[in-house]
C-alpha cells in the first residue's frame, strides 16, 4: 500500500513513513493510493466480534507489512486495554431511529483517544525498531493535546510539544495538558486561536531545515494513521445496527474534518452509509461551503463547544482531492488561493461529488444549550456541548435510515456549559478527581514562529 499527497508533488511513502512524517513535503496530506474494500461477507462477520477484532480487520489492509499480524493484534489490544467500557464505543438509543455512539470512555474522555492510544503504540513499536528519536508537535483546540500527552508521556525517544490557544479551552482541558509532570511533555499556551496554532504547526513542517533537524512528527489528524484508527468505530456501530444488511447514516460534530473523513473512508470501504452529516457550531465554514460552494474563512468565534472553534479545516483537503478526481494540481491551486485570499470556490463538479456523500447543518449557541437540556429530559443522556451540536443537527436529518450521532467528549470536560444548560455539574471520573489540585506547568507564547522554533530547539537539544 502506497500513500500519495493530496497536492501530487511529494514522494510516495509506505504506511510507516506516512505515519512518522505527518504533513507531506508539498504541503498536502497523505492518503492511500487506493482505498481497499471489505466484502459483504467480511463486514457481516463483524457482528458479535470485539472492538479489537473489528479494528484488526478494518486497518490491516492499510498497514501493509509494517507489522506482522501478531504484532499488530498485540498493539491494538494494548491501545484499548485502558478504556473504561468493555464495548470501547457503546451505542445508546436516544429515540426510535436515533442512536448515540459514546466515544468518550478512553483515558482523556474524548474520541481522540481511539486513535491516539493506538498511534502511541505504533510509534513506540516503530521507533523501538529503528532507534530513532522524534519531536511531536501538535496543535489543539483542547482534546487532541491531552490525548497526545497521555499517549506519549514519559517515552524516552519522543518529545511532545502541544500548542493550545490561550484562554480558549475549558479549564478541565487546560489542566489535562498542563499537569503532566513528565519531562518530555511541553504544554505551550499560544496567543491566538486554534487556527493560529495549526498555522504554526504547518509552517514548521514547511521549514524543511527545521523539520529535519528536530525530526518533526505530527499527531493531528493531518496524520493518516489518526484518520485510519477512527474508521473502526463506524464499522463497529453500523454492524451492531444491522449493517451490511441495512444502511445507516452518521452525524458528526465537525471541526478539522478528521472524524467525518474517517466515516467517508468507511463508506468507500463498503460500509453502507447513506449520508454523512456535518454538524457545525457557529464556526460554520463547512456548512456554508456545502450550501454555497464557497469556502470563505472568517474570524473564529469562541463558543461553548470550543474544540470545534476552527476555520481552516485541514482534512477537508482530503475530501476535495477525491471530489476533484484525485488531481493534485487542482487541489494545490485552490489551497494556494485559500492561502493568498482567505477563500476559494469549489468547482460545480466537485461540489456535486461532495453533496452526494455529505450534507450539513449548523446550530447556534442557544440551540446547543437547548439540545443538552432536551436530550437529558427526553433520553436521560447528559451530553457535552460538541455532542449536543451533533444531536441537534441529527434531529433535523432523521428519516427511515437509522441515524448514529457521534458523542465526541465526556460532559465533565465542559462542566460550565453543561451546568448552565441543565443545572447539573458533571463530575470527573475518580481517577481524575484531583485534577484541580495538580500543579500546572505551561509556557506562554506569542504566535511568533521563530520564538517557537527556538524554544523547541533548546528543549530538545537538536
Ligand atoms: C469534542 C470534539 N468534538 C468534535 C471535534 C471535531 O472533530 P474533527 O476535528 O475531527 O472534525 C473535536 C475536535 O477535533 C472535538 O474535540
Ligand atoms: N478539535 C481538535 C482540533 C485538532 O483536531 P485534530 O483531529 O486534527 O487533531 C482538538 O481538540 O484539538
From TrEMBL:
Keywords, ordered alphabetically: Amino-acid biosynthesis, Lyase, Pyridoxal phosphate, Threonine biosynthesis
Name positions with the PTM N6-(pyridoxal phosphate)lysine: 112
Keyword check for NADP: no
Cofactors named for this entry? pyridoxal 5'-phosphate
Limits of the Threonine synthase N-terminal domain: 2-80
Q: Which GO terms describe its biological process?
A: threonine biosynthetic process
Q: Which InterPro entries match?
A: Ser/Thr_deHydtase_PyrdxlP-BS, Thr_synth_N, Thr_synth_N_sf, Thr_synthase-like, Threonine_Synthase, TrpB-like_PALP, TrpB-like_PALP_sf
Name of this chain's protein: Threonine synthase
Organism, scientific name: Pararhodobacter oceanensis
What are the top taxonomic ranks of the organism? Answer: Bacteria, Pseudomonadati, Pseudomonadota, Alphaproteobacteria, Rhodobacterales
